[in-house]
Design brief:
Length: 201
Amino acid sequence: MPAGWPRPVCQSRCDATTAFMFAASRAGQWGHDARKIAVGGDSAGGNISAVLCQQLRAAAVRPAFQLLFFPLTDQVSHGPSYDEFADGFFLTRKQMDWYRDHYLGDADPSDPRVSPLLADDVSDLPPAYVAVAGFDPLRDEGEAYARRMAEAGVPVALRRHDGLIHAFVNSTGVGRSGREAMLEACGALRMGIGAGLKRHA
């Protein structure tokens, strides 16, 4: 474990890398193509997925696509949405502060392994679909990461669901909006894996 890094940070990155490499190594045995493995997650899971793609950029087998839902991308600074939706929209700023303190400990919040938006280089990453919620403290940093990747030449589709809140991926059984957002993301995933395969074949 790197000096100064708390176990949650190291463990989450190691677990994600191990899981991806295991899936890639067994793809043929399972009847799948190792070049068609996508990664994705929401919130902290989006953070881990984004970091994983950066970490595996030069790997022989790497993710074909990244599906990021309202990802946490910057542990240092925050956009206006962080203050605008600090309370009353499910995820609060107080909760984010608690999560940050318990996850990072004494680790450097500017390290791209926890703040992928702050990486020096975000080029040559897998194609991405980034979905954010209109009423979410993390909205602006998710959009900022999508724009930064696009500026670096990464194929990116950015979707803001104006009427939704953080964690809408968990509301598919409650209302139509969350379900429609997920169906859209599934369509992007199907198309994105094909685009990624062509780009990196």
